[in-house]
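Researcher: Please translate sequence to structure tokens.
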Amino acid sequence: MNPLSKHRSYKITGLVASLLLLGAAMACSVMFGLNTYSWHQVTAAYTAFDGSNEHIIIQTARVPRALIAALVGGAWP
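Model: Translation complete:
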């Protein structure tokens, strides 16, 4: 086996594992906190918005906070 392809497969595996870990951390950041929301409530906040406090908190505070945290973390040199 070519040593370069071996290193490339390790890099791809590491990248996929890191992205899965990032997704799990972002989901936990949105779902857990002072109030805990289910995955159904999080998805319903974007697919069936009803104006409830839970949906407003998810849309205006939790998801933007998780996205900004991921962008800031990714920008770190």
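Researcher: Any highlights?
Model: Residues 3-31 form the longest helix (29 residues).
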